[in-house]
Amino acid sequence: TCALPIWQQPLQSSYAGGTSDAFSALLCHPDCGGADPEADLGVTLDVEESLPAGIEFDYRFTVTNYGPATATNVDMLVQLPGGTTTLVRFVSDTGECALLGGSLSCQLGSVASGDTARVVITVLPTQPGMLINMVSRLSSDQIDPDPLNNELVHEALIQPAADIRLEVVDNAPIYPGDRLTYTTIISNKGPSPATGLILTANL
User: Fold this and answer.
1) Other residues' Cβ atoms within 10 Å of the Cβ of residue 44
2) Which phi and psi (to 5°) does residue 61 adopt?
3) Dihedral sign of CA atoms 88, 93, 96, 102 in order
4) CA-to-CA distance for 129 and 192, rounded, in angstroms?
5) pLDDT, position 190
6) What pLDDT, on a 0 to 100 scale, did the predictor assign at position 35?
7) How many Cβ atoms are within 10 Å of 158's Cβ, its own excluded?
8) CA pseudo-torsion sign 84, 89, 91, 95
9) What residues contact 87, with CB distance under 8 A and at least 6 apart?
10) Do the strands 71-79 and 129-139 form a parallel or antiparallel pair, or are they unpaired?
11) Residue 45, C-beta contacts closer than 8 angstroms, at least 6 positions apart
12) Per-residue confidence of the chain (203 residues) as pLDDT tens digits?
């Protein structure tokens, strides 16, 4: 017997060969143990296209199940950007993630039709350049009728950034007839070299 409520069971009014088409369709319904169930999974990414070096930012992944069946044992593998990038943290709103070499493997459990699962990866780029982030696998126990939306590749341009700091000190205390000396100290906290610096002092 089918676990679906009667109002959700497929019905047709015609008959073929004395056998109800509705009964045949019922046997083939995924939730009735008939044909293999399908779950169309897809992944999207929310992240800026251009970012400064030296500042943390998030890769926000959203896995959506477009149905019709519930996706079980959802597995996503994310290839982390390498090079001069530090992985700060990662978190998922369902299941759990673990580092696997240069990738992050996320076991997201079950995702019902129409529901989503989210994974946020925070990284710190330390040098300018191009960061490449890729979802190389998204799968479940169910057949995926549209595997084209199961993978993605994203490129983020990391711009040079220099944290310039200015400090002015003097030789106070001084007395009448003494010379007052101001010393200007310029420092760069990075992470990139600072070029073309111009200092203007109003005396």
Assistant:
1) 13
2) -95, 140
3) negative
4) 11
5) 66
6) 60
7) 25
8) positive
9) 80, 99, 121, 122, 123
10) antiparallel
11) 59, 60, 61, 62, 133, 135, 152, 154
12) 344 444 444 544 444 444 444 444 444 454 555 567 999 999 999 987 777 888 888 999 999 999 999 999 999 999 988 777 889 999 999 999 999 988 999 999 999 999 999 999 999 888 887 878 788 889 999 999 999 999 998 887 887 767 778 888 887 788 888 888 878 888 877 666 777 778 887 77
Q: How far is the CA of 72 from the CAs of 75, 85, 137, in angstroms?
A: 9, 33, 15
- Reading phi first (left if > 0) and then psi (alpha if -120 to 50, else beta), residue 129 is in left
Q: Which of 200, 203, 202 is nearest to 186 (CA)?
A: 200
Token pair in block for residue 122:
């925070």
Distance, CA of 157 to CA of 74 (rounded, Å): 30
* Tokens describing residue 93: 């709103």
Cis peptide before 173 (omega within 30 of 0): yes
CA atoms within 13 A on the CB side of 55: 12
In terms of C-beta density within 10 A (0-12 exposed, 13-18 middle, 19 or more buried), how is residue 201 classed?
exposed
